[in-house]
Specification:
With 271 residues, this protein is of the alpha/beta class. 35% of the residues lie in helices and 14% in strands.
């Protein structure tokens, strides 16, 4: 792994070097080479859920560079479902550090056009594999210790992972040690206001409009899979259209709704 290339990721994104990157593998069979120890839970989840939107946090192998790990001794691994991504990783023949291609803390990109708009000439090549299907990021599970902890809710619901494991996954405790664990993240330029239901969203929109604030209610909140797939695209549209405040309906805190709530709450947090 090139420490210089990884360093460029932090520089271009404006990302703190202490905020670790996810390492992408071409296949689950690579995991034992790069993780210090593959636990039973990690092996089961990798077998059942990879390729897919699941990231596993494990102890890093001694020969793995600490540069993408934020100086930690743990590493986050994932095998992406996109065939083009896996082909690139296979050609490189080593893990590829690959965060979202945007400025740190801002709305994640879901198309190549978003990447070009965010990073401009700071990157030489943009590989266009088509728009994101799931929209939101992977679920991150810490499987490095005795207890399993969810570090980031994502496109693969924790309930599904618990069914695979036959045991509960605990809430995260301790310091931030994986992407997406900061209080403020995924934020558009406009303000994000949260509502518990559609009626509250409409009332907030009416009040904002009465004050002369250009506001908009995020669509698709009644269908969680579509809400997740379009969330970042819609947040970006608000900025493009000069919206000053976007109103988001919080889904139930279960299944995919947990991940959507997480993104919205971080986007609405003080910056």
């Amino acid at each position: 792994m090139s420490d210089h290339a990884v360093g460029r990721i932090f520089t271009v994104k404006g990302r703190p070097v202490t905020h670790p990157l996810i390492l992408h593998l071409a296949d689950a069979s690579w995991l034992p080479e790069w993780a210090e120890k593959v636990t039973g839970a990690a092996s089961l989840l990798a077998h059942e859920c990879w390729p897919g939107p699941l990231t596993l946090l494990l102890g890093a192998a001694p020969h793995l560079s600490r540069t993408p790990l934020g100086g930690r001794d743990t590493a986050a691994f994932r095998v992406p479902a996109h065939e083009t991504a896996r082909a690139v990783i296979s050609a490189v023949a080593r893990p590829v550090a690959a965060p979202s291609a945007n400025r740190f803390g801002r709305v994640s990109p879901t198309t190549a056009a978003h990447v070009c708009a965010d990073l401009g000439t700071d990157v030489e090549v943009v590989l266009d594999g088509g728009p994101s299907v799931l929209g939101i990021e992977s679920t991150i599970i810490d499987v490095s210790g005795r207890s399993l902890q969810v570090l980031r809710h994502g496109a693969l619901p924790v309930e599904d992972l618990e069914a695979v494991l036959g045991q509960p996954i605990e809430r995260a405790t301790g310091s931030s040690r994986a992407p997406g664990m900061l209080v403020s993240h995924y934020a558009p330029l406009c303000s994000v206001l949260l509502a518990d239901d559609a009626d509250e969203a409409r009332a907030t929109h009416f009040e904002a409009t009465a004050r002369g604030v250009r506001s908009r209610i995020l669509p698709h909140h009644d269908v969680l899979s579509v809400y997740a797939a379009t969330l970042y695209e819609e947040l970006r549209k608000c900025d493009y259209d000069g919206i000053e405040a976007v109103i988001a309906v919080l889904p139930p805190a279960e299944g995919l709704g947990r991940a959507i709530r997480d993104r919205l709450e971080k986007a609405a947090a003080p910056r």
